[in-house]
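queue> holo job accepted (uridine-5'-diphosphate)
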Amino acid sequence: MHILVTGAAGFLGSHLTDRLLNEGHSVLGADNLSTGNLENLAHLADHPRFKFEELDICTSFDPGPVDYVFNLASPASPPEYLRLGIETLHVGSIGVEHTLEIAARSNAGYLHASTSECYGDPHVHPQNESYWGNVNPIGPRSVYDESKRFGEAMVMAYHRYHGVNTHMVRIFNTYGPRLHPGDGRVISNFMMQALRGEPLTVYGDGRQTRSFCYVDDLIEGIVRLAQSSEHLPVNIGNPGEFTILECAQTVLEVTGSKSELRFVDLPVDDPARRRPDITKARTLLEWEPRIQLREGLEKSLSYFRGKLAQGSAASQP
Ligand code: UDP
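queue> job finished
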């Protein structure tokens, strides 16, 4: 197949691109590099079935005929979407529509990367796909949450009104190699801080929870969903739930670091807990994650060590 991947220079986009190329497809990767990083695609520079175009999906573009569109373009880490608030709203609305238009024109399949943020600060635990969420529509995080919720509405509309073969994944916290060391997420922050021997910055009292999925597991789930006939959202994430304090402790053990913890203010509307109910993915896709947090952090360690050696952690993506 000839496949368009938007957000191809990002953490997940680059891993998905690798997977699709390995399966024999040809890939056109698009990214405006606002948070993506060409380093993630450097190993593909001479790949005969890969082409990269630096472009913003909020501007109209024509990639030519494609068989499938994976739309992964969006800032995704809290500091980055807060820095790029208006752009984030645009890419989740105008950008999503442009990519759907491309899929409609080509009669192509379509998969949209949505997020557990659609559940906001959830009242239902664990979160299943039928829960409508508890989102503050005007808080600082709303630029991301509402962008993603609008994107879901747009995808469903193109499915219902134009018959596009759409799919939607709600991605829970994911980590692994290529997570930018300076993007501000908890795993990248803790790993880099631990390796530098600096205090680990715990936001709030650290008793909020997250469920962390290793990138290879996530990509497997996305690829299975793309091939399915399911049009409604499907959670892909690891149901293993950890407090941020437990996460910090595991990072200290995996890195062998003696760093202390430094407690700082909790960001506004930071969800108190997050855990995917993955019954639907298990049933429909016969998918479940295989790599648990400690093992995934061990697999990521050499990547973060390499970043430390490069000294690139200080720079933003
Ligand atoms: N967090 C933290 N220290 C950090 C970065 C994040 O304690 O240096 C917390 C953050 O408040 C949140 C959780 O870790 O409760 C996950 O944050 P992240 O930014 O990785 O993703 P989110 O799930 O909030 O989108």
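queue> The chain is about 40% helix and 15% strand.
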